[in-house]
Amino acid sequence: MLSIYTSYSCYRCKKEFVLLTEEIESNQGYLACPYCGNRNVKKQRIADSLKECMQERSYKRKNGAVVQK
Question: Considering the entire predicted model, what is its pTM?
Answer without folding.
Answer: 0.67
